[in-house]
Amino acid sequence: MRFMVIVKGDKNSEAGVMPTEEILREMGNYNEQLVKAGVMLAGEGLHPTSKGFKVRFDGDKKTIIDGPFTEAKEIVGGFWIWQVKSREEAIEWIRRSPFREGEVEIRQVFEDDDFGAEFTPELREQERRIREEAAARAK
Amino acid sequence: MTAADTHRAIDAVWRIESAKLIAALTRIVRDVGVAEDLAHDALVAALEQWPESGIPRNPGAWLMGTAKHRAIDHLRRNALLERKHEELGREIDGRREMDIEAALDNPIEDDLLRLIFIACHPILSTEGRVALTLRLLGGLTTDEIARAFLVPESTVAQRIVRAKRTLSDARVPFEVPRGADLAARLSTVLEVLYLIFNEGHSATAGEDWVRPALCEDALRLGRILTGLAPEEAEVHGLVALMEMQASRLRARTRPSGEPIPLFEQDRGRWDHLLIRRGLAALARAEALSDAMGPYTLQAAIAACHARAGSAEQTDWPRIIALYEALAAITPSPIIELNRAVAVGMAFGPQRGLEIADAVAAQPALQSYHLLPAVRADFLSKLGRLDEARAELERAATLTRNAPERALLLLRAQKL
Asked: Pseudo-torsion of CA B92, B97, B101, B107, nearest 10°?
């Protein structure tokens, strides 16, 4: 199963302050461990929200709202995509991270099987039809 | 944390740490079987103590420390026995202690690589290599391996016991092969990983067409191996191939479980994260070596499909050239058959059929269901429907996979 590990930003990341050499080294070591264990599929750090923007949809109207975003919980500093065997393995890996403060949010990535019992044969059939029609139209 | 939570957490720690633990212990005691027993003893100690004491800050170091004590006890006991026989006394004890200290300072990557070479040693049967690799390097339980390969647990347990005994009897050294030996041994390792991947990718028997967990295990081992042997082009080539094949996993089956052929797959459902990883691994493989090895060539073929928006937009002439290069290194009628498909796509069904017919008499293909399936495809495009139908029915009798058989019979019916 895959997890998205969402690292929240803070005042420093928002101000564009680069981390100290010690933190960079620790993060580098941690990333290396994740890669060597075959766990990390992707990982990126994000620019401060002052360089980002939001788009708000309201019917046909689309409004662009420039950063920075002020709500701390909206601020994402970066993310990883991990491939692990269990939720516990994700927990065990994040326990090993060098973070000493702040917050990390971990969300499981949807895969086909996750639809589980809700994904009835009828829904599957509907999905199949939609795909086939889409394929036919693409030709 | 409840006891059940702690147990699940310990499982996760085991999955992360067990290979490193077994590798370091093998270096000390020089026997994979004994090393695994010692690692398990440490795991049992954790299961006894952690629910009470909580999970230590550095669980890997805790397990390693515990296992190390047990390894030293084990060596002392053996040394005592030896002393009685040989009267070498303190000398052995002293030397062993030094070995242990040296072993613990040794980079764990080197030990992991040695462990992979031992688990995939040519002295072992293929089944033994697969089981031992998943068990020692992948951290899978015997039961998990048995379920993945649809065999009884006792069969897998027996394969593992036999493999360990074979290694022990032959006193196989714990080392990374050198020189000319390295290439051959490395190719055995890659073969084992690809075998595990393929068993997940297109199950040879049973009701399921794919078993993605096995693909993930093989991929993870492959990714680990690229870190252990970063200069080996073919390791990156194999990982590139597996990443790209895995990228198509979720597009390969209908919800009901029937397989969907490559040309009919919804390319929007391919996993673009894995494709990107695959292309990056392929680029590394190509940069490391002038002559592409067999896995890199197959990855390059997979990359042609990954880059194409549709079957028609695929660079078939390049695929033909890559199959020709592959056939030059590892001649095989199956590669010829694949080339026939590519030629058929590039230059029409008649040209493809001629190549397929040229290899049809090969003994290796007599019970290979894809030969009649491929011929049927050419024949139906040429309007020779009766012959095509007969070939599809023949293919259906040859495959051991239930969903695939159903698909072949359906295609025959629709002609």
From this structure: 40
User: For residues B208 and B206, what is the distance between their CA atoms, to the nearest angstrom?
Assistant: 6
Element (H, E) at A82: strand A76-83
Q: Do B222 and A38 touch (CB under 8 A)?
A: yes
pLDDT score for B3: 80
Each as own residue / partner, the long-range contacts of residues A58-61 (CB below 8 Å, 24 or more positions apart, any chain) are: none
Spatial CA neighbour of B148 closest among B137, B156, B159 = B156
Across chain B, mean pLDDT equals 89
Query: Which residues in chain B (270-289) have CB-CB distances under 8 A to chain A?
Result: 273-274, 277
Asked if residue B119 lies in contact with residue B136, where contact means CB atoms within 8 angstroms, the answer is yes
Contacts of A42 in chain B (CB under 8 A): 273, 277
What ipTM was estimated for this complex? Answer: 0.82
Mean pLDDT computed over B323-338:
93
User: What's the pLDDT at A116?
Assistant: 47
* Residue A120 predicted with pLDDT over 60: no
Minimal Cβ distance to A41: which of B59, B254, B273: B273
Nearest to B247 by CA among B268, B225, B220, B221: B268
